[in-house]
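Encode chain A's predicted structure.
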Amino acid sequence: MDRRQYLRTALGTTAGTVAVAGCLGGGDSADEYPNMKLPKQEMSFDPEDVRFPAWGQRIPAATLPRALGEGEMSTRGFDEPLALTFVFSNCMTACPLLTQALVSAQGKALDEGWGDAVEFAEITFDPARDTPERLRTYADERNVALDAGNWTFLRPETEARAKAVVQEQFGVHFEKAYPENGTGTDSTGTETDADSSTPSTATASEPNDSEGYMFTHRSLILLVNAEGYVERFWRGDAATSTAAAELPDAMNRLRTA
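Encoded structure for chain A:
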């Protein structure tokens, strides 16, 4: 069964495993894994058994519009090591932490002079509200250095396209919900992986306002080498807690490997 078909059939099921994300251990030979630069990430599951691209797997090739620039770009179109995550800018819980992990790595890269050797990208799954203007504001709010030239926002044309790319291809489940009584409330994720679903909120201006929806969604950060293979991943609680501390050093190791 190919990955896309697996994702479609498995979205409602539980992976039933927990990753030890961010671990830089392992001692596998380069001959055994010729596409990989870093030692194998410790995992308690087979990468083929989970919905997202895990260690040693190549990320899907999805072509999406650049939100803050002209034209489109493939998720495999980056020429340098890439830190990739999936957000919506009105999120009040997980997404700012996911972005902060990437910002931490970007700051280290710029401070130490290797900012031109790495790339950062975020894919929004809320294209209706995440306009170019909104994403510029979000970048400013989150201290993203857009002028460094190594940060890309990718914005699917429609919510259906976001579902096809973010959920079906990358395995990052998200679901729209509407707060009651015009105020945002935390909502648990709809999937049962304990470390994979993270509540996210947005505030509605009035009950059932079409602009006042939120998303429950999975949290995932991928560190991808220049050939598009996942060298490290952080999901669920690890993506929103330990990734900010671990990603900068992992990215530095990758770009010099």
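Residues 42 and 199 are 26 Å apart (CA to CA).
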